[in-house]
């Protein structure tokens, strides 16, 4: 489980406006709020207290430590981590005690797991009426797919997003795990949590915020769905304006086997591209004629194949909208990344002008902050020792042994 902020238990009944310490601590806009985040998958990101909650249903236990180590170093940075066995009644009681002082609880288990543990929304909101109980599933909480395990690729497939990627004459192509896992899942849930927190801050009660990665991925397709409803988008992949069908919104191989991305959608940019590459001026009339797109694509491909990628990126005018396609190893040296603990990772974002975010601490080890967090919640040391002896909690030295 992960906890953010440091709202002391004795302050739980005071006015949120008077006790929250805005702008202090590492989380910028989120500081002063306490997040409890159940670890069951990489569904979502955030700053808080992560609970490694053993329910015997966690799918990540089947992935090797080496496979997850680097990702853990990035997505869990800034968090404190405690380890609690929720199969044990004392572990469940401990979670409810923590909920009593929390602002947000995030859980990503399959539907029904938290209810079977007696930790569903009702008992948690009874303990903390202001609580935002955030839930993230893969395929949704109801329906024929709800109980199935899954990953980004499957969620994208069911949402329709996967069918949009890839060439017209080839198979759909995965987009790493950026669309459903991180975009449709984590970011959508985060926006819901922020909205619910704001409503509670303005005097409202807590509530459940529930989304799925399939629904989130579908919501990212709003523009495409609008184009399709207007008859401006075909279900045939690779034939549309924004899926690589238009030759002036596509990628091209250069003489050094690297690629450039061309996004000259608007007429002035398209004109700048055609003129800068020295393509036949008749091509200026082909922009809105799909029948001429195959010929235009061949002309663009021939032109870009004459020179290396970086030459094109440096010498073409800005209005041609040509950008080098960077390998990830190249991109991490750019301004969107930093290196922390020897691992390249995204800089904290978005940027806050008055309360800038930062990396307050590296990713924790298993059980590293169990004693620290429980002490900050006022759990007596004798109870901590008893819970550790019973195997309900795991502290750092136990995890390392």
Automatic annotation (TrEMBL):
The lineage of its organism: Bacteria, Bacillati, Actinomycetota, Actinomycetes, Kitasatosporales. Gene3D superfamilies: Crotonobetainyl-coa:carnitine coa-transferase, domain 1, formyl-coa transferase, domain 3. Pfam families: CoA_transf_3. One of its GO terms (molecular function) is catalytic activity. Residues 1-37 are annotated as: Disordered. Transmembrane segments: none annotated. It comes from Streptomyces acidiscabies. InterPro entries: CoA-transferase_III (IPR050509), CoA-Trfase_fam_III (IPR003673), CoA-Trfase_III_dom3_sf (IPR044855), CoA-Trfase_III_dom_1_sf (IPR023606). This is CaiB/BaiF CoA-transferase family protein.
């Amino acid at each position: 489980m992960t906890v953010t902020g440091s709202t002391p238990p004795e302050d739980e009944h005071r006015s949120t406006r008077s006790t929250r310490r805005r702008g202090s601590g590492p989380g910028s806009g989120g500081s002063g709020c306490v997040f409890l985040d159940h670890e069951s998958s990489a569904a979502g990101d955030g700053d808080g207290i992560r609970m490694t909650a053993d329910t015997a249903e966690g799918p990540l236990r089947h992935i090797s430590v080496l496979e997850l180590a680097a990702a853990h170093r990035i997505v869990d940075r800034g968090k404190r981590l405690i380890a609690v066995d929720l199969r044990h009644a004392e572990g469940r009681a401990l979670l409810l005690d923590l909920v009593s002082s929390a602002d947000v609880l995030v859980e990503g288990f399959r539907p029904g797991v938290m209810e079977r543990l007696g930790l569903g929304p009702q008992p948690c909101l009874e303990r903390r009426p202001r609580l935002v109980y955030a839930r993230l599933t893969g395929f949704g909480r109801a329906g024929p797919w709800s109980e199935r395990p899954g990953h980004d690729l499957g969620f994208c497939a069911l949402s329709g997003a996967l069918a949009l990627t890839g060439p017209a004459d080839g198979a759909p192509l995965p987009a790493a795990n950026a669309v459903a896992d991180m975009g449709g899942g984590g970011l959508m849930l985060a926006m819901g949590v922020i909205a619910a927190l704001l409503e509670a801050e303005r005097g409202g009660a807590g509530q459940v915020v529930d989304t799925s990665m399939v629904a989130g991925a579908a919501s990212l397709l709003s523009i495409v769905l609008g184009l399709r409803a207007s008859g401006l988008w075909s279900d045939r992949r690779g034939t549309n304006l924004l899926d690589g069908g238009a030759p002036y919104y596509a990628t091209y191989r250069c003489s050094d086997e690297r690629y450039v991305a061309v996004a000259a959608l608007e007429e002035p940019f398209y004109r700048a591209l055609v003129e800068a590459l020295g393509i036949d001026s008749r091509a200026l009339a082909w922009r809105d004629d799909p029948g001429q797109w195959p010929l235009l694509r061949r002309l663009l491909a021939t032109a870009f194949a004459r020179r290396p990628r970086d030459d094109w990126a440096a010498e073409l005018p800005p209005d041609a909208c040509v950008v080098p396609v960077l390998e990830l190893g190249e991109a991490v040296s750019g301004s969107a990344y930093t290196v922390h603990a020897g691992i390249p990772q995204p800089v904290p974002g978005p940027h806050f002008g008055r309360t800038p975010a930062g990396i307050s601490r590296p990713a924790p080890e298993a059980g590293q902050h169990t004693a620290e967090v429980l002490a900050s919640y006022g759990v007596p040391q004798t109870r901590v020792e008893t819970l550790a002896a019973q195997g309900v909690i795991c502290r750092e030295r136990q995890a390392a042994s």
